[in-house]
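Q: Predict the bound structure with heme C.
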Amino acid sequence: MIRHIVLGACLASLSMASLAASLIGDAAAGEKKAEVCAACHGVDGNSTNPSYPNLAAQVPGYIADQLAQFKSGERENALMAGITAGLSEQDMADLDAFYIHQVPRPGAVPKEELDAARRGERLYRGGYAPMKVAACMSCHGPQGHGVPRRFPRVSGQNREYLKSQLWAFKSGKRSGFRSIMSKIAFRMSEQQIDDVTVYMHGLK
Ligand code: HEC
Ligand code: HEC
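A: Predicted complex:
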């Protein structure tokens, strides 16, 4: 009797989102379900197209959350809206479980962009006080490996993708978790966006 009351209270306090979060993913099932994703995100979650994101070794929970946001339209993207339309919460949890165990492919900084990477490093590690831009590392981690489940891995991420997302946050097209990134990107210059994406891509 007491158990029923406690369980009822717990369920009542859980939102739909946290219910989805509590589903346990099956990586083997996820591997099968990920076959349709390989054309754009790579067989092992390392995409060969710089405008598509890598998914390998992403922080647990983030992929499932983003898939749910594409499906609901909260995060707008025509391609991913189509892909997620038929996915259940269990599918999303399984896909998440598959990708978190894939090995990320490190990126690199070309020689002619070392100066840009150095400027990007200063912003990533120290922020930019005059514009009250917080240090990226405080949420994405010193090596860009992210923090489950809200703060995504950014190290080695494809440059074109990183850039497109910072612009999407800046313009308000993507808002995300508590609009944290919109407020940050809004105050970043075009130069800072270019520099920090060079640096993040080269982080290991
Ligand atoms: C036809 C190409 C294509 C296919 C197939 C595809 N995606 Fe995507 N995916 C994209 C693009 C493009 C984006 C970037 C969307 C944006 O700009 O917001 C993306 C973004 C994502 C993101 C967000 C990543 C991040 O770092 O925020 C996740 C997660 C994702 N896709 C998972 C999947 C999964 C899982 C599948 C298979 C079930 C899949 N995608 C199939 C093109 C594709
Ligand atoms: C206070 C925490 C916080 C700080 C500081 C922060 N971020 Fe983020 N960042 C987030 C969150 C949360 C998300 C995920 C947003 C969502 O769910 O859509 C994110 C997402 C991103 C993404 C998209 C990644 C992807 O896979 O789609 C990029 C790129 C990014 N941040 C870059 C930066 C840069 C560059 C800085 C420093 C100038 C920075 N962030 C500082 C919290 C932070």
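A: The radius of gyration is 18 Å.
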